[in-house]
Amino acid sequence: MNKLLIALQFLTIFPVRIKGTLKEKDLAASLAYFPLVGLFIGILSWLVFFCLSRFLSGQSAVMIALAVSVICSGGMHLDGLADTADGFYAGKDKEHTLSIMRDSRIGAMGVIAIVLILLLKVSLLTGLSLDAAGKVLIMMHVFSRWSMVLACYRLDYARAEGKAGAFMRYASKKEVIVSGAICVSVFLAAGGIKGIAVFLSGLVPVFGFMQLSRKKINGMSGDTLGALNEVAEVSALFFSALLLKI
Asked: 10 Å Cβ neighbour count for 26?
């Protein structure tokens, strides 16, 4: 239970009390429960969307449901996306890129990235039926949290120190498999065979971004993990919309 609470504490703004002293290996072990936190946020977003879609337009319901998910996570993934966009665009080398990403000020590319990613989410979700949009809201949040687990396992931590370092230093195959099983189960339950197809298709942009991060900063940082979360959400959305049209 402690590991689930750690995941909830790290990924959301909800006040969580954890007993005992936490070790770095405990943080890494909590990765197995990241998709469950995504499932919680996804269900909460779906409930908001389901209730509001009865009274408001589909677009308005989608925007408010997305706002709820952003609030639940404290906006940290969008913040990471903005920092990553600024750093990857202007950084001349690894150290310069990381220094730009650490700057608390947001640049033009960061603003553009946030606006574009939110517009993509709204447009893709509003193009789906109410039933499909509700299911995809859940799938995208589960998939994005699992993608971070995968990145923590496969890539090194790019900085000398930082909050995300412990997750990446001690992440093991066990966390990837357990969290992956949760993710695949949700996709299968929500979309059947098409759900699995969305999962597999969504891996392409995820691996592509991981490769880009490896090229730019020789690994991942907390900011690029946040950016990966956003990339994974849009990937799940895009392939869901595409496969539903086929």
From this structure: 16
**Boundaries of domain holding 82:** 29-245
* Chain CA centroid to CA 206, Å: 10
Residue 126 lies in a domain: yes
What are the DSSP calls for 127-159, one per residue? TS-HHHHHHHHHHHHHHHHHHHHHHHHHS-B-S
21 falls within a domain: no
Q: Which of 16-30, 138-152, 169-183 has the lowest mean pLDDT?
A: 16-30
Please report whether residue 232 resides in a domain.
Answer: yes
Q: Of the candidates 152, 122, 153, which has an alpha carbon nearest to the alpha carbon of residue 136? A: 122
- What is the number of alpha carbons within 13 Å of residue 44 lying toward its C-beta? 17
For tokens 């408010």, name the residue: 64
3 state SS of 52 = helix
Of the candidates 26, 242, 231, 14, which has an alpha carbon nearest to the alpha carbon of residue 143? Answer: 231
- DSSP 8-state assignment for residue 31: G
Average pLDDT for 120-129 = 93
Domain count, the chain: 1
Question: Tell me: the pLDDT tens digits for 42-100?
Answer: 999 999 999 998 888 888 999 999 999 999 999 999 999 999 999 999 888 999 999 99
With left for phi above 0 and alpha for psi between -120 and 50, is residue 23 left, alpha or beta?
Answer: beta
What CA–CA distance (Å, rounded) separates 90 from 108? 11
Tell me what pLDDT residue 1 has: 65
DSSP 90: H
